[in-house]
Amino acid sequence: MWNGKRGALEIFDSILGSLSESQLKKTHVTYKANLDSRLTSKYLRVLLQLGMIAKSADEASYYVITQKGRNFLEQYRGLMKNIDLRI
Fold first, then answer.
1. Residue 63 half-sphere exposure, CB side, CA atoms within 13 Å?
2. 14 with 34: CB under 8 angstroms?
3. How many whole angstroms separate alpha carbon 6 and alpha carbon 85?
4. Tens digits of per-residue pLDDT, 47-65?
5. Global model pTM greater than 0.70
6. What are the angstrom distances between the C-alpha of 55 and each of 38, 52, 63, 65?
7. For the chain, what percentages of helix, strand and coil (3-state, to nearest 5) are there?
8. How many whole angstroms separate alpha carbon 71 and alpha carbon 66?
9. From edge to edge, which strands make up the β-sheet containing 62-65?
């Protein structure tokens, strides 16, 4: 497996995967996705704009995955499963 820096899609996968388990605060997303606070803020903002995540209706400090985010996660993981990364 390739051990370089993660790209945006891998980071999307990490964040969306974490949120698929439960709604999380930014701090918990940061730890589960193994990011620093600055990058977490950047990617949460992008995912919000893309409609893949949303702020929780119950508690605004929590993030939740949307159906669009679940669809992306399923398709991305299916694609990665079919790609041989031992190039």
1. 26
2. yes
3. 14
4. 999 999 999 988 889 999 9
5. yes
6. 18, 11, 5, 9
7. 60, 10, 30
8. 9
9. 24-25, 62-65, 53-55
